[in-house]
Amino acid sequence: MNGWILAATVLLTAGGSAALWGVATGPLSRRVVAQNLSTTVICPTLLLLAQGYGRTSYVDLALLLALLGPVGTLVFARLLADEPADDRPAARGLTWTAAGAGAAVVLVLCAVTGPSRAMVKLLVVGALLISGNVVASRALSGGLRGVRDG
Fold it and tell me: Is the pTM of this model over 0.70?
């Protein structure tokens, strides 16, 4: 086991346990936030595993997950638009912590990879991951007009 795999294990354990707790307890809105958290935890984990095992196909999986994960969360947010507004989740700290962890992983991997096409792919994954997480979290808290008003 090298350092990359150990970092992936720690990230997946910490974030996965928080997401599992959110899915197992609480109202429906907390479960959707936990689904969004699982996306933002698994994607950097896949990037770390790609570096640890030397398999570039894991980066492609992370790219796909960074693209489709927030879209799924936005679909759930649209379906939950009729729920009472007083039950909206407020996950600002969680959102910025997950975005910061994803950014840290992407920046470290970019520094290790060096200037190449692989680094561009890592930067695209990071941009999709962070922006998707922020947009999906804002939609869940009722901050997007199209989601809130129907």
Answer: yes
